[in-house]
Amino acid sequence: MSLYLDTATAAQTRLHRFQRLPKSILFAGAGFLCAFLGSAVGYTLNPFRVGSLLHLGWWDAVIGLGIGLSIAILQSWYLARLEVAAKDLRKAAVISSLGGMAAGFSLAAVKMVLGLPLSVVGLQNLAHIAAWTVEGMVIALAVSRAIPNLKLIPAGLAGLGAGFLGGLMTAGAVSGGFLWVAFADGFKGLFIGLSIAVVERLAREAWLVVKRDGSLSPATGGRGLTMLQAPPTVLLGEAPIAIGTSPECVVVVRGVSGEPRILGEVRLERGVVLLRDPARSHEKTLHAGQTLRYGDVTLEIGTKTPTGQS
Fold first, then answer.
1. Which residues, in sequence order, are CB contacts of 180 under 8 Å at separation 6+?
2. Confidence class for position 282, pLDDT limits 50, 70, 90
3. Interior CA angle at 170 toward 165 and 175, to 5°?
4. pTM of the predicted model, to two decimals?
5. How far is CA 25 from the centre of its chain?
6. Which residue in 175, 197, 220, 308 has a CA-CA distance of 20 to 30 Å to 153?
């Protein structure tokens, strides 16, 4: 655990220089870089025969791992909880790897079904675009699990769009070896990262704005974060957003004494924002603009409707 804390602290320090960039740009840049590296590594360090289904599955698994893990790291850093996110990052690594492998199998299946019929009529590029579109959707569905309350349909649509754009860019291109393919996969990762960040914002009905004092440093002793050009937001939905000092919390607060625990849970139920106090098993309705204070964090409720009700 000490090694992870040291690594997380070092990562926070290095990432600090990018804090003024929009989340969408960060996700897009990380998606490109990690998909490029994942593609190059997945192809060259692949134990299976080139051209086989297992070779493609392994290749896409490493690509999915690169995109998914980078998005999960940035999401935890975005919420200033990277030092307690080890369990979440392990989960993201497993889900995104399996999702990438499923995406590789899906790509192969689409090309197998559409490749020959479309090539007969000179439309083989359509098979390529369709395969990349499906592949992008499957990867996005897996990667998006790192974003709290991001529903599968918006995430899938984001992946479809990202895969389509990537396929359109690379359709008919003359291959220059695996590095060219890795570069093309980088654009796939760019579009996936960008589209997930954009669709998270477009699909939201209610959200928490997380305003951190900045005077208290993370538990690891690293510097506090003045995050991005605007305070971070957390999407609200059916899954409760836990607030507290426990590592399982989405919003980790500091400056609160006592054992690690959940101090409150906020969720959206049938258009109404609800706050639950676990200590007293009490629940109350929250409205747009209302604020909550926990330790070094002030939370503000944001909704599409003025009252927070549909």
1. 173
2. confident
3. 160
4. 0.86
5. 13
6. 308
